[in-house]
Amino acid sequence: MADTAIFDVDGTLVDTNYQHALAWFRALRRYDITKPMWRIHRGIGMGGDLFVAAVAGREVEEAHGDDLRQAWGEEFDQLIDEIQPFEGAHELLAEVKERGFRLVLASSGKTEHVERFLDLVDGKSLADAWTTSEDVEQSKPEPDIVSAALAKVKGASGIMVGDSVYDAQAAAKLGIPTLGVRTGGFSVGELQEAGVMQVFDSLVAFRNALDGTPLARPSR
Question: Which CATH architecture has domain 4-15+84-212?
Fold first, then answer.
């Protein structure tokens, strides 16, 4: 039985994936590198430390990696005011917390971004803990962020909730199952192939189906 619910933030609780993709597209264009948006989107959910090599190639990472990450931050900051929470995000978190689970909001994003997104869903009033890039050495699909989330609350057994294949891959490396939502734009097939055990179209649909998941209300 799980005692800890670990929720990804970007793309799962707040609608950021397409702003991330656009920011990376613009950052790459600063260096006359053009990648199709669909390819960039397929890398969203992976940390910036791994993203450039995965999407643009090792040579681009070696030549421009740090500069591209700096450029991405500048471009993303121009879009951040557009970002909104997904419908039902706060209510879902509140219900999971009310059911007795430890609640950790897990992100390897910049601290200032994470703080802003937590405020959008009023997450600080509910979460037992949250993470940022300061808590990890490597981002997803490496398992650092999931491990850090469990450690924050001394959890013994976790359930990951995420929107991307990278959430599932990171959790699987620690033997932690993943529940998925399609809010990040990944298909049901992609998420299932990555090992997601159940996939929901929205946070509202997920909340309505909680009793059929490992986050069911504990029997009394």
Answer: 3-Layer(aba) Sandwich (3.40)
